[in-house]
Every structure is written in structure tokens, then in C-alpha cells.
Amino acid sequence: MKEYLVDYDVEAEADLVRLRDWLVANRRYEYAMEYLQMLKIEVADLSFLASSIGQSKYRLPKLYHPEAKTITVCHRKLTVIFHIDGDYVIVDKILPSSIITY
Fold first, then answer.
1. What is the C-alpha to C-alpha distance for residues 97 and 18, in angstroms, rounded to an integer?
2. Whole-number Å distance between alpha carbons of 46 and 52
3. Amino acid 1: pLDDT
4. DSSP-derived 3-state class of residue 82
5. What is the rounded radius of gyration, in angstroms, for the C-alpha atoms of the chain?
6. Cα–Cα distance measured from residue 87 to residue 62, given in angstroms and rounded to the nearest whole number
């Protein structure tokens, strides 16, 4: 089993910032940091899970990359769209799971 390095696209990093800002505005700062830490730990698992996940059957993830794959994280509330590029797993986008329906 191959192990990959996980990297975030600029757009995915912006998604993390927007999520953090929303959590801080609607919850506590500490909660926001804990939630983001949990999210990053789950995304880090892609380093060894990525090759075992099949390509997405939905059209929306394919807008970000033709070989897009998805995984749900944070108790299935968020979907991470990613692809494999050589020795890297590139996280392309982080969206609410309810958006990934077509």
C-alpha cells in the first residue's frame, strides 16, 4: 500500500479559513479550533486511504478535477474533494455534504 503526502489546494485552504470564520462567529473560538483540528486529522488519513477510494460518481466533484474522489468527514457533515497526483493527495475543495447530490 502506497502512502501519499497530503497537500491543500489554495481553494481548499480558503474553505478552511471560511469555515473557521463561520465557526468563530457562531460558536466559540476554542470550538472552532477543535473542529478544524478534527477535520485536519481526518483529511490526513487520506495519506493511506486515497488509493483505496474510487473516483466520484457525482458531477460536482469532477468540476474540480477530472479524476476527483470524495470522502465525507466530521460526522458526514463535510465532503472533501481530492485527487492523487504522483506522490501527493491534493485536497481540491471542502464542501457541506448536502451539496454533493448530483
1. 16
2. 9
3. 74
4. strand
5. 13
6. 21
98 is written with which cell numbers? 448536502
Q: H helices within 1-102, ranges in order?
A: 10-26, 29-44, 46-49, 59-62
Q: Which of 39-43, 50-54, 64-68, 95-99 has the lowest mean pLDDT?
A: 95-99
Q: How far apart are CA 96 and CA 64, in angstroms?
A: 15
User: Residue 80 pLDDT > 60, yes or no?
Assistant: yes
Looking at the chain, the whole-number percentage of residues with pLDDT higher than 90 is: 86
pLDDT value of position 98: 81
How many angstroms separate the first and last alpha carbons of the chain? 31
Which cell numbers in the block locate residue 49? 486511504
- Tell me the C-alpha distance between 86 and 46, whole Å: 14
Q: Assess contact for 58 and 68: CB atoms under 8 A.
A: no
- Walk across the sheet containing 69-73 and list its strands: 5-8, 88-96, 78-85, 69-73
